[in-house]
């Protein structure tokens, strides 16, 4: 009876976390992975061109025009001959909205997606931080206290970079800006993307021009369907569920991009990228990062969000960052500080779908044999498996070591989440879903 009572209490805690996130979240990860998908799709297209002996002709270059991703200055053209730097770099990704028809695509637009990718070419590893768009910060140049997504609208990418440097101490090396129309057009150009839809999705928002009608199971999504799948949030999980679907969609897209058939789609994808993506990276840098990205597996990728709590001031909703945990995330993801894990004994957790109960029992037994105490929790609506680190001491290296001894968790996505939304009173949680 005590075990059952403990499980029920853990379940209540889990639901409380999810409900709070659904009720109070300020869309802190809205469309994050949507824009990542669009960017990486364009970048991988670049490297496919290189590998197949395609290239941009010399008359594509100019001294001044840098409005598109494939138009470079002479200085950038010369960078094609420079060896690829082996040092870590911070790449800023901004996803910007639209100001309406017949307006400049880049001027005065808010950046509702803000991500920093810390990329290490030596170790072929990526650590990605999402910064909630409603984060309350002081903007430089006397712009005052604002939401951080206002920085791009008020001062362009220069003000965003300055804000990140002065607020978090993060120096940005390169940037990529993606317009929010990119994903639909790229998916259609590819002829659709195969996705496992984890539940029936039906929702219509006529005011917002959003119409979703998807059946559970394997689907080939076109551009509009993909946007609907990525934006769907009527599942009791709010932005948490939406963010997860964005990650799963990205994984499906990556698998598709490795198929030989993709080469015939490259010209159209490049045209879309040139119109809806803007960067200060040279073609050479893009192709080198793309080549590296194609060889990176899940064991070298770590994702986190700057932690905090929602706060309402009048009609304005802010995300108030937790200063201690935020610094901890930055130290881990940007500076790659290594925590002291000597004599640390981890407690494991397993969340599992009813159909995975037998698998959960097997993993629990193996973890017990390895010396871990394990808590378990059955959750009806879990989709897609993953590995969640709830404590800073649970590192990617620990996860890779555990994978070697526990092959059942190989290739699961690694998430660092100090908010412990997916925790069973544990330091790390293995999520076992049907898909």
Care to describe what's here?
The chain is α/β, with parallel strands linked by helices. It folds into 2 domains: 32-184 and 258-333, Nucleotidyltransferase, domain 5, CATH 3.30.420; 338-432, Alpha-Beta Plaits (2-Layer Sandwich). The protein has helices spanning 2-24, 32-51, 74-78, 150-168, 182-189, 223-231, 238-257, 266-276, 283-294, 323-333, 357-369, 396-405; strands at 89-96, 111-120, 125-130, 136-139, 144-147, 174-179, 193-197, 201-205, 210-214, 217-221, 277-279, 301-305, 308-313, 316-321, 347-352, 373-378, 386-389, 413-416, 428-432. The strands form 6 sheets. A 6-stranded mixed beta sheet has the order 11-6-1-2-3-12, sandwiched between helices. Helix 2 (32-51) runs parallel beside helix 7 and helix 2 crosses helix 8 (266-276).
Secondary structure layout:
Layout: H1 2-24, H2 32-51, H3 74-78, E1 89-96, E2 111-120, E3 125-130, E4 136-139, E5 144-147, H4 150-168, E6 174-179, H5 182-189, E7 193-197, E8 201-205, E9 210-214, E10 217-221, H6 223-231, H7 238-257, H8 266-276, E11 277-279, H9 283-294, E12 301-305, E13 308-313, E14 316-321, H10 323-333, E15 347-352, H11 357-369, E16 373-378, E17 386-389, H12 396-405, E18 413-416, E19 428-432
Parallel strand pairs: 1-6, 3-12, 15-16, 15-19, 17-18
Antiparallel strand pairs: 1-2, 2-3, 4-5, 6-11, 7-10, 8-9, 13-14, 17-19
Helix pairs in contact: 2-7, 2-8, 2-9, 5-6, 5-8, 6-7
Q: How many strand elements?
A: 19
Span from first to last CA? 31 Å
Find the CATH topology of the largest domain: Nucleotidyltransferase, domain 5
Estimated radius of gyration: 22 Å
Content of β-strand: 15-25%
The CATH architecture of the largest domain comes to 2-Layer Sandwich
Total helical segments = 12
Number of domains as seen in the coordinates: 2
In round numbers, the mean pLDDT is 76
């Amino acid at each position: 009876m005590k075990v059952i009572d403990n499980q029920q209490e853990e379940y209540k805690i889990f639901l409380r976390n999810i409900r709070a996130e659904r009720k109070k979240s300020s869309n802190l990860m809205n469309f994050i992975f949507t824009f990542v998908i669009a960017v990486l799709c364009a970048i991988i297209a670049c490297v496919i061109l290189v590998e197949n002996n395609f290239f941009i002709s010399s008359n594509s270059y100019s001294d001044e025009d840098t409005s598109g991703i494939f138009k470079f200055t002479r200085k950038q053209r010369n960078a094609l001959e420079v060896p690829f730097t082996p040092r870590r770099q911070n790449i800023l990704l901004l996803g910007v909205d639209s100001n309406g028809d017949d307006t400049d695509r880049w001027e005065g637009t808010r950046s509702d997606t803000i991500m920093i990718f810390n990329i290490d070419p030596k170790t072929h590893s990526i650590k990605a931080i999402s910064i909630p768009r409603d984060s309350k910060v002081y903007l430089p140049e006397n712009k005052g206290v604002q939401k951080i997504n206002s920085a791009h609208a008020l001062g362009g990418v220069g003000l965003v970079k300055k804000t990140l440097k002065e607020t978090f101490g993060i120096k940005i090396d390169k940037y990529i800006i993606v317009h929010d129309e990119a994903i639909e057009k790229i998916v259609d150009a590819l002829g659709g993307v195969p996705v496992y839809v984890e539940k029936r999705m039906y929702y219509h928002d006529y005011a917002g021009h959003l119409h979703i009608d998807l059946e559970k199971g394997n689907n080939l999504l076109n551009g509009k369907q993909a946007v609907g799948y990525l934006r769907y949030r009527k599942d009791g999980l709010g932005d948490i569920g939406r963010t997860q679907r964005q990650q799963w969609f990205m994984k499906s897209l990556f698998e598709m991009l490795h198929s030989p058939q993709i080469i015939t789609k490259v010209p159209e994808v490049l045209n879309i990228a040139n119109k809806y993506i803007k960067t200060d990276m040279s073609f050479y840098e893009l192709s080198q990062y793309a080549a590296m990205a194609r060889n990176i597996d899940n064991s070298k990728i770590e994702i986190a969000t700057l932690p905090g709590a929602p706060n309402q001031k009048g009609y304005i909703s802010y995300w108030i960052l937790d200063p201690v945990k935020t610094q901890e995330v930055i130290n881990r993801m940007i500076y790659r500080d290594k925590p002291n894990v000597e004599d640390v004994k981890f407690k494991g957790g397993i969340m599992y779908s009813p159909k995975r109960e037998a698998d959960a029992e097997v993993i629990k037994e193996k973890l017990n044999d390895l010396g871990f105490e394990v808590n378990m929790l059955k959750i009806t609506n879990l989709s897609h498996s993953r590995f969640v680190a709830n404590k800073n001491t649970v590192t990617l290296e620990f996860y890779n070591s555990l994978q070697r001894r526990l092959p059942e968790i190989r290739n699961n996505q690694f998430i660092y989440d100090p908010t412990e939304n997916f925790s069973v009173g544990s330091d790390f949680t293995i999520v076992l879903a049907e898909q």
